[in-house]
Amino acid sequence: MRFSLSRPDVDATVSADADVTLEGFSPANGRSRWRFDAGRDVGLISGRLIPTQTAAHTALFRSAGGKLVALNLATGARAAATANVRGWCRKVLTYHQDEGYDVGTGVVHTYIGQFALVSCAAGSQRRLAPPPTAPAFVAAIGARNAGLIAWSDTIGVIAAPPAG
To answer: Model pTM greater than 0.90?
Structure first.
């Protein structure tokens, strides 16, 4: 397998034989607890795709056969998932500035910031309207204060009471 990324604003090159196997390890002995074959997922390999998160330890992945699977990253438990289930996607925030800054090899006017957190349809990662309440795990990604969970979305900072 070959992977190369020359600059963060240029797509990575991934060799034709690259594929992904996710594996959970025991911290006590380093032995594998579980494995998941995600097949040829260029987005995962290149870091351009952060899987949709649906629960504290659960994210959605495509299996090598193309089926959408909810994978618990703590236990390795998996279940079939539907593409329209609501999840939480990370979207890159790119900033453009008129006045560039010198990085020693040139002047940069565009840079990649942190990831925004967006409510989305899990299978397509299509943006959904922010929900009226937020699951507790969103607070671990965003913040919790004054009875609200807040997160940085691509449209601004959003806050909602916790679900349940």
So the answer is: no
